[in-house]
Design goal:
mainly alpha, 10 helices, 76% helix
Length: 196
């Protein structure tokens, strides 16, 4: 794709994101996106097969913003691993599109398949970094869970749930995150449940 084609595609993506944030995905029409981007209808369909295809790319770009926010927060100096997980949650909440994503999740306008795709990609890309932060936290003493993989996945899911503070307040999620990362193996409890 040439420079002009990339610029037009980017203008469509920006226009769509702005409209989705203002009106929501469902109520936004392709014609409104075309008008906002100041392009012809044929130009839109040259770059995207449908509004759903456009949304998929918008979602990929937002996922990239979340991943970038995660990496930036995780690299803040002077924080232990537990504090880095807290910084990541705040950074995700500060991404411009977060309120819109929360509304879309609440309204159920976005296709579940798209949400699952973004969730799967986020976990695949972020999981190794979360596991490394947990290992660092165990080494420095700020984290002591024996269940590194489960804890990493749960913390990632909690960050996604934090997009809907109407479900679980962020303070409750922070408490749960600390409980997950500070959990200790309790063999007698585990044996007791299995021997009954």
């Amino acid at each position: 794709m040439d420079v002009e084609g990339r610029d037009i595609r980017l203008r469509i993506l920006r226009s769509a994101t702005e409209l989705f944030m203002e009106k929501g995905y469902g109520p936004t029409t392709v014609n409104e996106i075309i008008d906002r981007a100041d392009i012809a209808k044929g130009t839109f369909y040259h770059h995207f097969n449908s509004k759903e295809g456009l949304l998929s790319e918008v979602a990929d770009r937002i996922k990239d913003k979340y991943m970038s926010a995660m990496f930036e927060a995780a690299s803040l100096p002077g924080l232990d691993s537990m504090q880095k997980f807290e910084a990541i949650e705040r950074a995700i909440a500060d991404v411009e599109e977060t309120d819109w994503i929360g509304r879309e999740l609440q309204d159920g306008q976005v296709a579940p398949a798209l949400l699952l795709k973004v969730l799967r990609q986020s976990i695949q890309e972020g999981l190794p970094h979360y596991l490394a932060m947990i290992a660092d936290g165990k080494e420095e003493g700020s984290i002591n869970t024996p269940y590194e993989l489960s804890a990493a996945i749960l913390v990632m899911i909690m960050n996604i749930v934090s997009l809907r503070p109407d479900l679980i307040p962020r303070e409750e999620l922070a408490h749960f995150r600390r409980a997950v990362l500070l959990s200790e193996e309790n063999e007698s409890q585990d044996q007791g449940c299995c021997n009954k």
